[in-house]
Amino acid sequence: MTSKPPELASTSTVWHWLKRNLFDSWLSSLFTLVCLWVVLYAGWQVLDWLFVKAEWAIVQQNFSRLLVGRYPPQQYWRLWVVLALILGLGGGLTWYGIKAKQKPISVFTLTLYLLPVSFLLVLWLIGGGLGLPIVNNNLWNGLLLTLLLASVSIFLAFPLGVLLALGRKSELPILRGFATAYIEIMRGLPLIGILFMAQVMLPLVLPGEWRLDRLLRAIAGLVLFNAAYLAENVRGGLQSIPKGQVEAAKALGLNVPLTLALVVLPQALRTVTPAIVGQFISLFKDTSLLSLFALLELTGMTRSILAQPQFFGRYAEAYVFIGLLYWIFCFTMSQLSRRLERS
What pTM was computed for the model? Predict the structure, then answer.
């Protein structure tokens, strides 16, 4: 008995799958053909608009404004240094993590040390001072401001969320009550309301000599809101850890901080990594709400460009482009999350 060649067997398998799932009856075949026609027609219309009808001059003429806003062109080299620093740091930590598979604690410790240092270095390069010309934050616009707001908010909201989760699991009634009340209140309020209070109401109630920068107020609103959701994600991971793990750590002589740092949190955070990264992605997209308060991040800068007379009616091209930018960064975070889970 002779067997079929591999290519013939593969073709036969595909044909049987199509016949069983898409063409098993005349009604199913008709529905399949109609759906195929709709998909092809819609795809052709989209491609025709993208490459023939769309006028991409709004993107070409405002490309630098969409990316870095009104940042001085003569200081662009600082942004390139920041990009090289971020890529180099990310690549270096990834390489070190692969080489140090048996020493995850050393990788975690090194990451913690490098994050604050690199964070301060990035802020110094962008803002200036200490030998560099100062660039006022009113000139930080476009994608640059979006990334800065999102990264700073994530950097601050994550540890605050972990502390709130630990507080809600605490055996101290006062600490547990405060953490629970904060989380439930923040989760019951809309983000737009919190941003409104931070941007509009807070300056009205502060003393006259207190002038908080509007970027700081925006970051505070994003951090306080997202920390509550991150706390619940982390708490879900904490509940998945068997009590035997903690008891074993105590039997080995580990105190409470070491038990949390070396035993509980690494396992809990690994369990809820998808939920945490999902909240980071949501935070990144929520920065677009700040355009309602005259902050020219990516969406706000796009709205200001569309307000120019020569670009009236070019909404589709502008929003398709910034939508692509949002998708690229969100998809990148999603892929990094998957790689982190596998490793």
Answer: 0.84
